[in-house]
Amino acid sequence: MRTGISISVSPEDRRRLEAIVLDRNTPQKHVWRARIVLLTAEGAGTTAIMREAGVSKTAVWRWQERFMDEGVDGLLRDKTRPPGRAPVTLERVAEVVRLTQTEPPHEATHWTARVMAKACCLAVSTVQEIWKAHGLAPHRWRHFKLSTDPAFAAKLHDVVGLYVDPPAHAVVLSVDEKSQIQALDRTQPGLPLKPGRAGTMTHDYVRHGTTTLFAALNVLDGSVIGRHMQRHRHQEFIRFLNVVEAAVPAGKVVHAIMDNYAAHKHPKVQQWLERHPRWVFHFTPTSASWLNAVEGFFAKLAKRRLKRGVFRSLVDLQATINRFIAEHNQMPKPFVWRADPDAIIAARNRGFQTLESIHQALWTVT
């Protein structure tokens, strides 16, 4: 042992040190520090301690001295060290945030991390940390459209009321069509997924035609009625309504929720509606197709089966969609609406207020 090193471990300190070593949740750096002190108290030499604790000679000496000066608590504390680089000042952080929310001076639609780092004389990683801390992602954007329907609130409450509290002895159907579904084949076979490599698919394709899927989602049980049509005019819509009419049990009132597509309001469709008095049409507000429950089913179909699908013919595409609907109907789930309509109306009003303030600012500048 080095000259000047004299370690005396009290019974209380020994219990604490042994508890540190035996506790499986203790950080390993604390474990080997405690073992250094325990081995030193047992009279082990520096070489033996190095071998048992798996540390260097200087580490053994450092923690022996720390225990002499501060006891067990000193083993559990790391001395603070100055950072490797000076922290970014609040003024520079604010400047990065301000610039990110403005258009870049060069011909680009948004800032990138490298361009911002060059403009502010910072590291790319620093810019990324500032963006993350302030919830900024200039490379990302989202679509939006505020409905200008003057009867927005009334139509919203009407549709949501059918979802939340459907009438007794009635069927609530969400009806829509997904048009222009392409039967795309690839020019070359792709490689399958394997460890370390994603599946592959050629960027080019061969078109084998398109189909339109008419679908009616039963809100109460989640089942779907689907039919393929070549076009999506009022003639095809009436044919699909006849299919649904035959499928719904007699004596049930049918409440159909749909968007404002022209084919849904065609005079021939209105005549069909007069001949079938048990049907009631409910239209969503304009620019609010997200309110139609069947859109969720269309999104699931596109994401899980169509987007990466390979179809060698139009018949192959239609058969695939039919199998997807049949599989969905084996274990359907009722549609559950959770959003508060009053909160939606308030968000829409805030959106119009924001747009109005932006327009006023633009007029002031010009």
Layout of SSEs?
Layout: H1 11-22, H2 28-41, H3 46-53, H4 57-70, H5 72-75, H6 90-100, H7 113-120, H8 124-133, H9 152-164, E1 170-186, E2 205-218, E3 224-229, H10 234-247, E4 253-258, H11 267-275, E5 279-283, H12 294-306, H13 314-330, H14 341-365
Parallel strand pairs: 1-4, 4-5
Antiparallel strand pairs: 1-2, 2-3
Helix pairs in contact: 1-2, 2-3, 2-4, 7-8
Physical arrangement of strands within the biggest beta sheet: 3-2-1-4-5
- State the helix count: 14
Spans of at least 5 consecutive residues whose pLDDT stays below 50 are none
Number of strands: 5
What's the CATH architecture name of the largest domain?
2-Layer Sandwich
Shape: elongated
Rounded radius of gyration (Å)? 34 Å
Category from helices, strands and their pairing: alpha/beta
Mean pLDDT over the full residue set? 90
Amino-to-carboxy terminus distance: 82 Å
**Level of helix content?**
40-55%
Report the top-level CATH class of the largest domain: Alpha Beta
The quaternary structure here is single chain
Number of structural domains = 3
Describe the overall structure.
The chain has 366 residues and is α/β, with parallel strands linked by helices. It has 3 domains: 11-75, Arc Repressor Mutant, subunit A, CATH 1.10.10; 90-133; 165-190 and 201-339, Nucleotidyltransferase, domain 5, CATH 3.30.420. 47% of the residues lie in helices and 13% in strands. The protein has 14 helices and 5 strands. It has helices at residues 11-22, 28-41, 46-53, 57-70, 72-75, 90-100, 113-120, 124-133, 152-164, 234-247, 267-275, 294-306, 314-330, 341-365, and strands at 170-186, 205-218, 224-229, 253-258, 279-283. Strands 3-2-1-4-5 form a 5-stranded mixed sheet. The protein is elongated, with a radius of gyration of 34 Å. The model has no long low-confidence stretch (mean pLDDT 90).
